Amino acid sequence: MKKYIVFLLVLLLFVSFANSQTPKRGGTLVFGRGGDSVKLDPINVTDGESLRVTHQIFDTLVKYKPNNTEVVPSLAVKWTVSKDQKVWTFYLRKGVKFHDGTPFNAQAVKFNFDRWRDPKNPYHFGGEFEYWGYMFGGFPGIVKSVDVIDDYTVKITLTKPLAPFLSNLAMPCFAIASPTAIKKYKEDFFKNPVGTGPFKFVSWIKGDKIVLEANKNYWDGAPYLDKIIFRSIPDNSARFMELEAGTVDIIDGINPEDVERVKQNKNLQLFIRPSLNVCYIAMNMDKKPFDDIRVRLAINYAINKKAIVDAYYPKGFAMVAKNPIPPSLWGYNDKIQDYSYDPEKAKKLLVEAGYPNGFKTTLWAMPVNRPYIPQPMKVAEAVQSYLKAVGIDAEIVTYDWGTYLQKTENGEHDMAFLGWTGDNGDPDNFFYVLLDKDNAVKGSAGNIAFYRSDELHEILIKAQTISNQKERAKLYEKACEIVHRDVPWVILAHTMPPLAGKKTVHNYIPHATGSEPLNKVWKE
After folding, report:
1. pLDDT at 245 over 60
2. What is the mean pLDDT of the segment spanning 452-459?
3. Domains of the chain
């Protein structure tokens, strides 16, 4: 926890706050990022680069505050819940229109929920709807019914209490889309998105850029910016050079050596995203030899995580991880003793498992940098070297981002790097999505280790139905112990990802969940 206190001090030292200048309207913000979006239909994406864009186009019923995960009104102005925590009534904002001019109302909310939760719905197309399964227990899962009370009142009935229900609804994947546009574009809605958000979709050149324009009639006031361009620039150094040259306004995925360059450049500033993430290597337990706990333990002992974090993460903005959740979340178990770097012990475990000469396998490396892994290929090469030292010959494999995600969800990998940025500030969003047996389903797996523990499942389901946070925290601390014991992952790092931007950019506040609306951002 001492390291996390240092994290907080770094955050206080470097985070950029909006100054007292009067905001200026107009201009284009160019955001340089490490990869392209996969789809722009929010319910059908799980990757951060897609949600970063859909967050601008769509609104949710409720949303998070700019600086934390406290839930506040958005398209719903207020809500009530029954004593048994199973019936939620939402009172909707009046006078809101989708970008195509059609009205937002209770019928639109019901249309979206019915589309999400019912595979037989005629508009249930465009993807696997993974997030619905992750957060609401599949189809139809926990949501029993969605009823229109009147044009601006909707009632959602659950089959059982769900503690993070309201927080889940604030996640950008559960944004409300135009029913008219979905009916019009059908399977092509993902590239013709229409919401109620502060920016409207203009164009998308795959692998290059996405262009959005301001929604001048936005219910929360017109954005300050006229336009946003999200540019895909895969190489960190090239992206940083463009920032220095002035061709982009904000970038993510900064190399460790570039943090100091930002501090020394009078025209640039650092932004810090609060820590709510984890980077890990999932070992596919449906494949040999990863079904043997001795092999999984050996791999954990073989890798010097501290050396990797020190070498390939910005100094002061990352820490070695030992739990699936970051220390900023309640339920974090600081009593866990991490596996040490001990290659000799790794070799002994491999001998015990029947692999005295090691074995050959593949190690899947992410093709894009993410906040939790700024230099994915270099990290993969380092891990490859550590594995080689104990006799494991791991060939590095990679694919384009969309293919990589789909193939890992299909379970085609042996070992694969991946990570997660928390969506709602609740431990359930990590444990249930990434490690529960419910989500170890090939084709739409969030649990790409295909780790199936009845003991863990029982704890996680119990934690979902309890409203007392202290009681839930104890359950998640136990969950940390179970995952540590069963080692489905090499849990690598948590980060406070630094971003960089021009000093002419104001009021950009990175959110812990990985994406933020940009309607209050302005440029000199």
Report:
1. yes
2. 98
3. 1-34+198-274+496-524 (3.40.190.10), 59-192 (3.90.76.10), 277-495 (3.10.105.10)
